[in-house]
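dumping this here so i dont lose it
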């Protein structure tokens, strides 16, 4: 089986590295969008987005479009808002095989998750999702990690689970694509909320409250869209929520910390929760469900409120049953 990973950012590179290490006889293509990136990575032997991690010999960095044609499985590790443009541009080369979305987000224009985006743009592909609690740097270091592989087609899901698991990366399987991808997308929004809370000095108890009520919001939206509750309680939901809301390794959490501390966030980092907060708020309105934390994060990221005012508003909401 020929595996091609699209996007040589932190996550795509970490996945290519761990899959390649697991079987040195297997060539893994790591697809970058231009020749400059290809030349730089081949020269330095690493990705600028994952410095210090040397690419094994069987990872081949390429910008050739033929690498897409030749792959039997393609892992899509570009950011969520870049996924649809990529798929539209290369649709003719991507059909007839599993496309595994690794992005965690909701498309701001269509309000679709990655699997629906794949279905809409490459209708004859088999959509799958790889998601769950894992920092790219941990995967690349060979630290123990467990993720969820979601695919509606059980046989293809089993094949992908076997092909992409490594001695340190353990994949669990589900057919609940919707639940898996929504958990991964929405936890980033909650991580911004938790970071802002800690940054503003509201304390660990407030963070625990946001994390728990955030989980309630994630579940509310996911169930309204047909997901299964057990998926939300699994690695792709609760697992990733806990990781991202409690670790300063998370870019979403660090972005929130900066907001809370009234300083500029680090420039140039991918922070999926920003666009997804606004997308999820719009989707919640369309579905007629309440997602107050998500709406607050959307306002915060657009500069329409401050952490202090946002917390006051959340506390002043009408009292209700848990
Ligand atoms: N980092 C992590 O720990 C984890 C990340 N993820 C998810 O993976 C996704 C990617 O994140 P991550 O790898 O960290 O992001 P990075 O910012 O590290 O890298 C993004 C990469 O995508 C490339 N890219 C952007 N647009 C395109 C395009 N149209 N065609 C080809 N390549 C493109 C960028 O290329 P260029 O440099 O040229 O702009 C860059 O190499 C996100 O959705 C994230 O939530 C999931 C789990 C863990
Ligand atoms: O998705 C992740 C961990 O599972 C990575 O989180 P950040 O994008 O916030 O760094």
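and the seq i came up w/
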């Amino acid at each position: 089986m020929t595996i091609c990973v699209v996007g040589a950012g932190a996550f795509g590179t970490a996945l290519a590295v761990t899959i390649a290490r697991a079987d040195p006889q297997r060539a893994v293509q790591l697809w970058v969008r231009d020749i400059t990136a290809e030349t730089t990575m081949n020269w330095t032997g690493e990705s600028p987005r994952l410095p210090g991690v040397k690419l094994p010999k069987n990872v081949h960095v390429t910008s050739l479009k033929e690498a897409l044609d030749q792959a039997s499985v393609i892992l899509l590790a570009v950011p969520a808002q870049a996924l649809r443009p990529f798929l539209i541009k290369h649709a003719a080369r991507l059909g007839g095989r599993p496309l595994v979305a690794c992005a965690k987000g909701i498309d701001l224009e269509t309000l679709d998750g990655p699997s629906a985006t794949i279905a809409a743009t490459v209708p004859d592909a088999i959509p799958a999702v790889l998601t769950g609690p894992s920092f790219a740097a941990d995967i690349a270091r060979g630290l123990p990690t467990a993720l969820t592989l979601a695919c509606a087609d059980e046989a293809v899901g089993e094949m992908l689970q076997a092909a992409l698991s490594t001695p340190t990366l353990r994949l669990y399987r589900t057919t609940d694509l919707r639940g898996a991808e929504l958990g991964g997308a929405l936890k980033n929004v909650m991580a911004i909320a938790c970071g802002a809370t800690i940054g503003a000095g509201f304390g660990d108890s407030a963070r625990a409250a946001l994390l728990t009520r955030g989980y309630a919001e994630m579940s509310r939206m996911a169930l309204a869209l047909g997901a299964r509750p057990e998926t939300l309680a699994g690695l792709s939901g609760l697992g990733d929520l806990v990781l991202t809301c409690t670790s300063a390794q998370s870019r979403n959490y660090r972005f929130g910390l900066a907001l809370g501390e009234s300083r500029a966030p680090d420039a140039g980092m991918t922070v999926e929760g920003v666009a997804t907060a606004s997308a999820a708020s719009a989707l919640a309105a369309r579905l007629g469900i309440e997602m107050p934390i998500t709406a607050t994060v959307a306002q915060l990221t657009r500069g329409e409120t401050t952490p202090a005012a946002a917390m006051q508003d959340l506390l002043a909401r009408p009292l209700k049953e848990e």
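The chain has two domains: 3-175, 182-316.
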